Amino acid sequence: MKNSHDAFINRNFEECINLNDEHNGLTTNLSYSPYRAVFNEEIVKWKKGLETASEVLEGWMKLQLG
């Protein structure tokens, strides 16, 4: 079990941001698909989740990198 004083510090945000951007692009492409109707609800949920992840990453970077 981790000590309450232990903390994970990520200084390489580039990979996380790039992956989030890649998924965001793929989700945007899916939203333009002629077959999206069946998956539209899931596409909207995924897009919102990616937006939230992006906001969290941004806040995390500000906090850790000052």
Which keywords apply here?
66 residues; 68% helix
Describe the secondary-structure layout.
Blueprint: H1 13-31, H2 40-65
Helix pairs in contact: 1-2
Concise overview:
The protein is mainly α and 66 residues long.
Describe the protein in words.
It is elongated and about 50 Å long. The chain is built from two helices and no strands. Helices cover 68% and strands 0% of the residues. The protein has helices spanning 13-31, 40-65. Helix 1 runs antiparallel to helix 2 (40-65). The chain is an all-alpha fold and 66 residues long. The chain has a domain at 37-66.
Strand content: under 5%
Q: What is the N-to-C succession of helices and strands? A: HH
What is the share of helical residues? 55-70%
**Number of DSSP helices?**
2
> What is Rg?
16 Å
Q: What structural class results from the helix and strand content?
A: mainly alpha
Number of extended strands:
0
- C-alpha geometry: elongated
Mean pLDDT: 86
Spans with pLDDT under 50 lasting ≥5 residues?
none
* Terminal residue distance: 29 Å
Report the biggest beta sheet as strand number plus sense, adding barrel if it closes. none
